[in-house]
Amino acid sequence: xxxxxxxxxxxxxxxxxxxxxxxxxxxxxxxxxxxxxxxxxxxxxxxxxxxxxxxxxxxxxxxxxxxxxxxxxxxxxxxxxxxxxxxxxxxxxxxxxxxxxxxxxxxxxxxxxxxxxxxxxxxxxxxxxxxxxxxxxxxxxxxxxxxxxxxxxxxxxxxxxxxxxxxxxxxxxxxxxxxxxxxxxxxxxxxxxxxxxxxxxxxxxxxxxxxxxxxxxxxxxxxxxxxxxxxxxxxxxxxxxxxxxxxxxxxxxxxxxxxxxxxxxxxxxxxxxxxxxxxxxxxxxxxxxxxxxxxxxxxxxxxxxxxxxxxxxxxxxxxxxxxxxxxxxxxxxxxxxxxxxxxxxxxxxxxxxxxxxxxxxxxxxxxxxxxxxxxxxxxxxxxxxxxxxxxxxxxxxxxxxxxxxxxxxxxxxxxxxxxxxxxxxxxxxxxxxxxxxxxxxxxxxxxxxxxxxxxxxxxxxxx
Length: 463
Ligand code: UD1
Ligand code: CA
What we know:
Elements: E1 16-22, E2 39-40, E3 43-44, H1 45-54, E4 60-65, H2 69-75, E5 81-84, H3 91-96, E6 108-113, H4 121-131, E7 139-144, E8 154-157, E9 163-167, H5 174-177, E10 182-190, H6 191-198, H7 214-221, E11 226-230, H8 243-263, E12 266-268, E13 281-282, E14 286-288, E15 293-294, E16 299-300, E17 305-306, E18 311-312, E19 315-317, E20 322-323, E21 328-329, E22 333-335, E23 340-352, E24 357-369, E25 374-375, E26 380-382, E27 392-394, E28 399-400, E29 405-407, E30 410-412, E31 417-418, E32 423-424, E33 433-434, H9 446-462
Parallel strand pairs: 1-4, 1-6, 4-5, 7-11, 12-14, 13-16, 14-17, 15-18, 16-19, 17-20, 18-21, 19-22, 20-23, 21-23, 22-23, 23-24, 24-25, 24-27, 25-28, 26-29, 27-30, 28-31, 29-32, 31-33
Antiparallel strand pairs: 2-3, 6-10, 7-10, 8-9
This protein binds uridine-diphosphate-N-acetylglucosamine (UD1) and calcium ion.
Uridine-diphosphate-N-acetylglucosamine binds next to strand 1, helix 3 and strand 10.
């Protein structure tokens, strides 16, 4: 077998094409959604995989699609090319479908599975480095040793640690089933070698499928040598086939992220109760109390405290801010340095200036609050009239009395005071007091006379 680049000293500089297998929808997920679009830490599993792939800067990325392929074609539009596999006749057949898309491509191919999303870029690099080693194997397979090898393809090695044979569990003899080294499914090979071998494999096996690992067997038959590298982290190559396995992958991801947060200088009082998003950014000396959930798009600066049972999504918190307990920050929430949000406060598309406070029972939606302003308990920005959203602008150092309704669009000037219980529908000028409530009626002694009269009446009734 000839590899045109075999004698090229710059073999390692050859371009890379990645083929991601995702033709099977994943029946065991029992979902209308394609398996690889199910999220882990709020991000579709295929995107986790493609993020690691991006670190290798491949020249080409081809995703093999089949079942509900329109979902993948839409989700990955502009980020990948597609090859269609219909019908699905096995993993070898799946990879062969990418040959047309890669016509004319000269370089290496790395085959990945869309439902094995957490293969590290370092592992992919190690596979390619092995392919480029002086002995120039035809194919490099990624192996692993799971606690329970049942169901996996086995890698039977020879005395030198090279591969003697690849065999699927269903086709394996009892002696082969005793082998603990399993096939992760992932492999690397020069493109021309891979597609040439794929043309030679058959489907005369227990499942009547074209097995991708048979390219290894064929290469060996033809006198070539194939190599295995072994990952010592079986979790890295764990496939996700069911909701149960999805939950296990989520738990593992969260655990690793919590450990990273703490290593990077955050205090998590009860780490196992805090849930991060794939893109959460945390500064140093951040304290996160129990039961906090980060949705996507949250960035937290240094010295921030997030009190218990708060939910944050699409929020930016600057240095020294504090949130909660029981706060909800929805997309578009921005808290300037030292600002405070207390219990049962909700923010959405709203900015708090430096040092501004909304400590109790408040809704700030489509609002801008100036630096140092104080928003009293129970303040509501009435931002929606049933048809349109409107903004509320509150000036610096303004004081909004408790239980006020600010009916947007409305502006409250700098240093203005809104009296408690006001429903404000017209702009308030700088330094102005606005009081919107009925005049108070004052009747000294009225209650005493009322009680006397009523008690007498009651006594007469019993009498
Ligand atoms: C495969 C390997 C097995 C390995 C195991 C690791 C083969 C024959 N067997 O087995 O050695 O231990 O992975 O998990 O390769 N796919 C397609 N088209 C197809 C068939 C599969 O795109 O026609 C995709 C699936 O969507 C999936 C991946 O290939 O992403 C693996 O398919 P799966 O059926 O899970 O392979 P296994 O039989 O588990
Ligand atoms: Ca599988």
